[in-house]
Specification:
Number of strands: 11
Order of helices and strands: HHEEHEHEHHEHHEHEHHEHHEHEE
Structural class: alpha/beta
Number of domains: 1
CATH superfamily: Aldolase class I
CATH class: Alpha Beta
Number of helices: 14
CATH topology: TIM Barrel
Strand order of the largest sheet: 9-1-10-11
Radius of gyration: 19 Å
Largest sheet: 4 strands, mixed
Shape: globular
Helix content: 40-55%
């Protein structure tokens, strides 16, 4: 299959028939995953603090240091969460948090070493904004920071903080957060150390179709260079309790007719399930060099995630023993491992538990 161009991708995004697009994505999935296996991982999202100086407009999770519900997770509670994860067959913790004004890199080194000294578990942690914050606070380069964290026990890095890799969009959503170039630099440096990472995209806020294509393109270009991304995870903006919605400038308008896809000049619109499937399918087609595409049951629910398995996705992500960030926006889908296995089978695939690196641990 020939690689599609940005221009072709934009045309597909705007005007392709949904089912035709889904079939094309499904055909690419079949070529990359001929065993008809769909995977998932047992892990837990642990947010060590909700205190954050960035205060992104799209985020309902952050708190100021003095807020009543601001917290820093103590080590005893953190260790208990990891023990529970292991007892449930977990192989990974995804550990992320806000940019706490008092934390230096020593905090993170100590945290990683303490976890690794007690538990045999993969630490998938610290998104690029966190990495850049640690580097700036400690007067280190990004490469030096990653090497220090890797030596302390950090195994791999999640793709959080990408949102849309367009600085025009980022200036609206998160003006204090790192620029697109810094996100890409963290990932490139991590890959150069042999660390694997994921890439994400949050859409359905203020972006235009052209921004979505630009995001996919820079991720594809970096993967061409490093081959360090294990998976791509597109997910939809969740507006509940966020400043972006409270601010009338970006309020939801005209009850969906101003969709970011249907009307490129739209200021703001939440993506529908149909638009989610469209962008998921396009991601599978465009990112021909990233083997795994993950469906987001966390934002879409298990039924749409099941449909996504026929729109190019080959992974259902995590059983999500714990999730706080999306839940803070008022979305709290919960599924069991049996639910995930059932959805995979319903879609006509063979379920299998994987590890961080997509090695199959057991089939069902």
């Amino acid at each position: 299959m020939n690689r599609i161009s940005k221009k072709e991708a934009l045309t597909l995004l705007k005007s392709a028939d949904l089912l035709d697009l889904g079939q094309r994505a499904d055909e690419m999935r079949q070529k990359l995953h001929q065993d008809e296996i769909v995977t998932f991982i047992i892990d837990r999202n642990i947010n060590y603090t909700n205190i954050c100086i960035n205060k992104c407009k799209f985020c309902a999770f952050w708190r100021d240091k003095g807020d009543k519900d601001a917290y820093v997770l103590g080590k005893a509670e953190l260790f208990k969460k990891i023990e529970e994860t292991l007892q449930l067959g977990g192989t990974q913790i995804l550990i992320q948090g806000g940019l706490h004004p008092d934390f230096t890199i020593e905090y993170y080194i100590d945290l990683l070493r303490d976890i690794k000294s007690r538990f045999d578990i993969n630490i998938h942690g610290f998104s690029p904004p966190e990495i850049c914050y640690m580097a700036d606070r400690s007067d280190l380069t990004i490469g030096e920071t990653l090497k220090i964290l890797n030596d302390a026990g950090l195994d791999s890095i999640p793709g959080g903080g990408a949102e849309i890799l367009s600085d025009r969009v980022r200036e609206i959503l998160s003006p204090r957060k790192i620029k697109s170039s810094s996100w890409l630099k963290v990932m490139e440096n991590a890959h150069s150390l042999g660390m694997r990472t994921t890439a994400t995209m949050m859409f359905g806020s203020v972006e235009k179709p052209e921004d979505i294509i630009e995001h996919l393109d820079v991720v594809r270009n970096l993967q061409d260079k490093t081959e360090g991304f294990t998976a791509f995870i597109p997910w939809t903006f969740q507006p509940g309790n966020t400043e972006l919605v409270r601010n009338s400038e970006f309020g939801i308008r005209n009850k969906r007719q101003n969709s970011a896809i249907r009307n490129p000049q739209s200021a703001f619109a939440v993506a529908t399930a149909v638009e989610y499937l469209r962008i998921l399918a396009l991601s599978r087609i465009y990112l021909d060099n990233i083997k795994n595409i993950q469906a987001s049951w966390v934002t879409q629910g298990i039924k749409i995630a099941e449909v996504a398995l026929r729109f190019g996705a080959n992974d259902l992500g995590s059983t999500m023993i714990e999730e706080n960030v999306v839940a803070s926006a008022g979305i709290s889908y919960r599924v069991s491992m049996d639910d995930i296995i059932g959805a995979i089978k319903n879609a006509g695939f063979r379920p299998a538990q994987r590890d961080t690196y997509y090695n199959i641990l057991r089939a069902f």
